[in-house]
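Hi support team,

I'm filing this because I wasn't sure whether my run with NAP finished correctly. The job status page said complete, but I'd like someone to confirm that the output block is well-formed before I use it downstream. Pasting the exact inputs I used:
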Amino acid sequence: MSQILDGKALRDEILDDLKNQISKLDQKPELVIIQVGDLAESNTYIEQKIKFGEKIGAIVTHKKLPLDIAESELIREIQLANDDENVNGIIIQLPIPQSLNKEKIIDSISPQKDVDGQTAISIKSLVVGSPTFIPATTKGVITLLDANKIDPSGKHVVVVGRSTLVGKPTALALLNRDATVTIAHKKTQNLQAITKSADIIVVATGKPKLITKDYVSENQIIIDIGITVVDGKLVGDVDFENVKDLVAAISPVPGGAGPMTVASLFQNLLEAYQKQS
Ligand code: NAP
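And here is everything the job wrote out:
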């Protein structure tokens, strides 16, 4: 039996810790979530964040804006949150409509309030190895490894997926932790041989069960970030049932990387609050 990397249990520990710290504050940290449109998946993710925020005693303000909002109007909303000194963190729930300039919009967030580490300044800080805010999903992966005493230093880590939101920052954060990192994507040739050669595989593709038993080898650690709804159920990028007994440790979906993302976002929020105070 391999070790199951339990993100839910760790999320709950972080929840207690944050709740305890926030209970001692006079003013509660506030997160503003800006959503454009009404995508069902985004609604679910936002609900999880609101729930977690309520449990730890933070304020979460959800601004739902119309799908056809003008870019200037959206930037004005972000500016309002930037200027509001009660607001400590701001996130734009992705995706946003393609008609909007995503980079320009994200870069309108004040770097001091960029608790999902997505602005150019935050990303540069990750590239140079002294991150301000590590993107929440990436931070969750690192925390899950650390809590399970898995040190990426000197290990060969294969990150499958190269998105700006997940794959690239996760690869960079692991490089900063002295891993030897390979990044794979759709054009990667012979993915099986590459993943099999890894010590740690991190998968973020959104392709359900892409990583089958033919892609893994024994003694590996597998972190599955992928979440896809298939027949009403959440499915990861790893064929969990057929892989779990072949490797040393694996994170499940649901209950692995997902809960860690939410907890990490609020750790960043508290950090932002402390830096701003
Ligand atoms: P994305 O922007 O669609 O990026 C997917 C990446 O996977 C791309 O780089 C793509 O390669 C690569 N890819 C797709 N099919 C592949 C294949 N067959 N072989 C190798 N690489 C392949 O998605 P994302 O935003 O990074 O999200 C990825 C997954 O993580 C999704 O399921 C998403 O729901 C989930 N997610 C989970 C959390 C969490 O909290 N756990 C947070 C965010 C996202 P190319 O670049 O070549 O196209």
